Each structure stands twice: as structure tokens, then as C-alpha cells.
Amino acid sequence: MQELIYRTEDISNDELEDLFVETTLDRTIIDALKAPSPVVLVGSRGVGKSFLFRIAEHEQYISFSHDKVMPIYVSFNRSSLIHTKNTRQFANWMLSILCGKIIRCLKKQGYLTSNSVPISIIAGGSISNNGETRIEKIISSFEESWQTAEVEVDIKGLPTIEDFKDAIEEICQQFKIKRFNFLIDEAAHIFRPEQQRQFFTLFRDLRMPYISCNAAVYPGVTFYGDSFQPIHDATFYYLDRDIFHENYIENMREIVEKQMDASSDLLKAISKNINNFKILSYAASGNPRILLKTLARAGKMNSTQVNEIFREYYKIEIWSEHSLLSDKYSGHKEIIDWGRKFMEIEALPVIQKKNTRYLEEGKKTTCFFWVHRDSPQAVKEALRLLTYTGIVTENAPGIKGTRSEIGTRYQVNLGTLFALETVPTNTALNIARNFDLRRMSEYGMNHSMYAEISILSNFSEVDTSTVLAREMKKNIDVLDLAQWQKIELKKIGINSIGEILTATENKLREAYYIGEKRARRMKSAALASVYEYLSG
């Protein structure tokens, strides 16, 4: 079976350009990320935010000798592991991460020939002869704090924001660097609003001529805080791959083909069953990771296998992933469970029944529903969480309904819609080819489904240390890893999430036929899955 790469973390810098399938939207976003003005990129899991950040970093790194803009890609995906009693722990960890990344980038460019004052400030003190810094020790202490939450992390040597900015200015002047461009992925733990508020305070405070900041966040679950004004402090871009674009299928196919040899059995199967490939492409609703994961299951791409994907993945697994959020974060349980019920019992069946009738009558089809702007706040919160897991997408706000009232139009994940068909491969393509934006199911401000959730269920921060301890004991089967990866990990005695975090590459190489390169890739994939799982 062809090994497909689902995650950007598994892609080396040498492979980036080879795997990149550029669209007009992609290029617009990349150019914005490279520009001086701050950008916030919003998108659901798996749509490609990290990949575009890495491409922007790669392009700026290549042009550094000419443009003198130093790109620094940094992921805050380990934020769920930060557990100390200090209320400023996350802000301190973020600043230490940025300092550490700057030191590494300066070293890579050959600028660390001496311990200048500004470099010492960023490094937390003098850099030792073997290259060790105080700032790296601070980072390690924070990222290991999940094991000893009662121990206070010593932040001696960590600069203040103002000292950090002054040092950056001096470094830029010393080495004739125009600016540092931070590309911050996984901005903060999605279910810890305080982390997100601290992040966007830092995001705003770092703004200066020698620093540009960009951040990738999830829709529906991001808290910006009072100090950050989205309209004034950044330009927002939304990464949604348009299923209505004339080149949509072609672009999705190219994404897949870039990972395969011309002789690949899967590539041959796609060519032989092109309509089934189109169905799975539409079902993924513009999400490359979902498409690659479902293709990996499809084997020969015949109708039996494709229909099985709808029965297993789109009818069961995608919903299980959504419901797991309430298991980990009980403060969200009511709105998470209601959102699933609303979609499974009301919105999706209504759309499916309409499409059956429309096709019989030779009319246009729909994948949309509309919610009145004055609907209960809890309903809006439930829909926002559904956008995080990719089950719905906010298509357009401020849309008029049939009575000229204003609301938001949402698009359902097409895979969940097709899964309601008796034989998806017989009808899905006709449904997808005939969508009309003007057709949508409407839900007014007092719809009967709202009665169960009329009282607002606020997001509430739970005792995450308790949650983390429980989650660390869970079997690796809950992780979004390929089955062969889980099998190999279990063979060498790695069965729990916590064991993945402490495993070394040498430990992974104990597995049969796992060499150095594959061990590094497996560890990267396993860690990325753990961090995503712990974040939500």
C-alpha cells in the first residue's frame, strides 16, 4: 500500500516544493505571510495552514541573502504540556520559544561568532563553548512541567518584552537584517482561553519595524482577549478550498499525485475509477488530509470500498472525533453533544431529503443551511465547535433569508451528507455537480431544536492537569496515526500516549525495519498526533 503523508510535520524542507500544489488563494496567503503586516490565518484541522507557513518560510529563506528578511517558523503545539502554578507560565514559555528559535536561525546563518550583548540577552546569558544556552534549559523545563506541575520553573535569564525588542533591533542593525518574520503555528491550546488571550497580547506587543508576526488559528474556538482588536491588529485570511472552483478536482488530484510514483497501484486505480476519486474529493470538502486518509483506505478505488468509507469514516469516525471533545473537556459537553444531535437528526437529514426530491425533479441541489443571527448564543457556540472539527464551514455571514431576515449560511461537510445516501457512489456526484448557493434550509431564531440549549453553556476552563494525567494513560489507538505506525509502536512496548512523549528515536529504531530516517519521521508523526489530540 502506498504510504501517503498526511501531516506537514512529516515533510522535509527538500520535499516542500515538490509536494506544493499552488492555487490563487494559496499564493495570496503566502505573499501576505511574507509581508510586514501581521496576518492571522484561520482554518480547520488538515486544510493546510501549516503547509503554507512552511512554504512562506522556505521561500523567504531562499531569498534571505537578497531581501534580508529572516523567516522563523515556530509551532506552539506543545502548549498543552505546560503546567506550572505561575499564571504567567504560558507567556514566559512563548517568549522563551521565540528566543530559542532566533538563536538557532542566527547560528544557521553563521552570525553567532561572538557573544554580543543583544545576542546574550536573547540567549538568556552567554552562549557556552559547546553552544548550550540558558534559554534552551528554560524551554525544556516548561515542556517537561506536565510531569512535575508542582515545581516552579526558574526563568532567570528570560528577557522582558521590552528587552527582547531592544535586542532584536540591535541584532538587525548589527547584521543588516531587515526584520524577523515569525510564522507562529498552533497559536495556543484551543480549549484554554487564557493561553489564547496571553498569546494575542504577546502578538500585539511584539509589533515593531524589526518584527512581523503571523499566526495560524482554528475557527470557532479562538479567544482574542480585550487587548487584541482583530480589525486593527491583523489582517485575517480564511483557508477554505472552494469546492465550487472549476479547478477544484484537478487541484486535489495533483495534491495526491505529487506523493506517488507514476507506477503506483493507487494512482492506476484512481485513473481507472476517476468518478469515485471525484466523489471522495468532494466528500473531503477541500480538506487535503481527509482526502489522503480516505484514499489510503480505498485500495482499488472500486465502489464497494468507497461506499465502505462513507459507512465507516463519514458516518461513524468523524462524529466520534467530535464527541471526544466532550469526553476531555466536560465544560463543553452540552454544546458539543447538542451540535452533533442538531446535525445528525435535523440539518443533514433535511438537506438529504431535499436533494432526493430535487434530483427527481431535475432541480439544483443544496449543501447549505442558514441560521438566524438572533438565534441563542449557545447555538452559535455549538456551530463554531462544528467548524473546528470540519463538520460544517461558515460559508457567508450577513445573508438574507426568505423573509429578508439576516443570518449566517453554513456549508455541511459533503462526506457526512453523502453518507446518508443508500449507495453514495450512485448519487453523490450528481448531488455535488448541481449545488446552488441560493438553496438552503433555514432555522429561525426560535426553532424548536433550540429549546434543549436555550441556556448558554459558556466555554469553561477545566482542571487541565487532571485531564492531562488521564489522557496520558490512554492507548495510542485514540491517535490519528496510520495503522502500521500503531502496530510498530506496540511491538516495541509503546502503548500509551505518555510513552510516546518520552520515547527516543533509538527506542523507535528497535522496531523491525525501522531505520534512522523512518524512526525520525515516525516520532514526528506520533508527537504531532499527540499534541493535536491533547489540544482537542
How would you describe the overall organization of this protein?
With 536 residues, the protein is an alpha/beta fold. It folds into 3 domains: 24-238, Rossmann fold, CATH 3.40.50; 314-456, no CATH class; 473-535, DNA polymerase, domain 1, CATH 1.10.150.20. It contains 24 helices and 9 strands. The chain has helices spanning 13-19, 24-34, 49-62, 64-67, 89-108, 117-123, 134-143, 161-175, 193-205, 230-233, 248-257, 265-272, 274-283, 288-298, 303-328, 333-360, 377-388, 414-418, 424-432, 464-472, 483-491, 497-502, 505-508, 516-535, and strands spanning 39-42, 69-75, 179-185, 211-217, 235-238, 368-372, 392-400, 406-412, 441-443. The chain has a 5-stranded parallel β-sheet with strand order 2-3-4-1-5, sandwiched between helices. A 4-stranded mixed β-sheet has the order 7-8-6-9. Strand 3, helix 9 and strand 4 (211-217) form a beta-alpha-beta unit. The mean pLDDT is 86.
How do the strands and helices of this protein lay out in sequence?
Layout: H1 13-19, H2 24-34, E1 39-42, H3 49-62, H4 64-67, E2 69-75, H5 89-108, H6 117-123, H7 134-143, H8 161-175, E3 179-185, H9 193-205, E4 211-217, H10 230-233, E5 235-238, H11 248-257, H12 265-272, H13 274-283, H14 288-298, H15 303-328, H16 333-360, E6 368-372, H17 377-388, E7 392-400, E8 406-412, H18 414-418, H19 424-432, E9 441-443, H20 464-472, H21 483-491, H22 497-502, H23 505-508, H24 516-535
Parallel strand pairs: 1-4, 1-5, 2-3, 3-4, 6-9
Antiparallel strand pairs: 6-8, 7-8
Helix pairs in contact: 2-3, 5-7, 5-9, 6-8, 12-13, 13-19, 15-16, 16-17
